[in-house]
Design brief:
The chain has a five-stranded mixed beta sheet with strand order 3-2-1-4-5, with helices on both faces. β1 and β2 form a beta hairpin. 35% of the residues are buried. It is globular, with a radius of gyration of 14 Å. The longest helix has 18 residues. Helix content is 42%, strand content 21%. The chain starts with a strand and ends with a helix. The chain contains four helices and five strands. With 136 residues, the protein is an alpha/beta fold. The chain has a single domain, classed as YqgF/RNase H-like domain (Nucleotidyltransferase, domain 5), CATH 3.30.420.
Length: 136
């Protein structure tokens, strides 16, 4: 089973990959200037890595309720389902970007937010957490 972890954003989409071994790793994010190009990038990753399932970070509020951003992610998920016909799982993404930024603080060279590196690292945490829950 091959999984694609996704950290959705309006401008950048972080991506991570895991196979049957279950180790999530960051891959190049989708940072193209248009939505059409970002979806084309995702399509290429799905094809090239033979993705079977998608795991999308879902923005719950700290109290566990669904926030306003969740509606945007829901629309993104519907589009993923319609375009690719793959199972899509929602995974709690609370504090993933913050966790990534905290872990990167000690680096000499800080990642450029616009590069999507932080987004792909967040997608890795999302996917790792999802895969960990599947083993319970």
């Amino acid at each position: 089973m091959n999984y694609l972890g996704i950290d959705w954003g309006e401008k950048r989409i972080g991506l991570a990959f895991a196979d049957e071994v279950g180790v999530a790793v960051p891959i190049a994010p989708s940072v193209a200037p248009t939505k059409k190009e970002r979806f084309a990038c995702i399509a290429e990753v799905i094809r090239a890595r033979k993705i079977d399932q998608l795991v999308v970070g879902y923005p719950y509020n700290m109290d566990g309720t669904v926030g306003f951003k969740a509606k945007e992610v829901d629309a993104f998920i519907v589009e993923l389902e319609n375009r690719f016909g793959l199972p899509v799982h929602r995974a709690d993404e609370r504090l993933t970007s913050h966790s990534v930024e905290q872990s990167l603080r000690g680096r000499r060279k800080k990642p450029n937010r616009a590069s999507g590196e932080i987004d792909s690292l967040a997608a890795t945490l999302i996917l790792r957490d999802f895969l960990g829950e599947q083993c319970l």
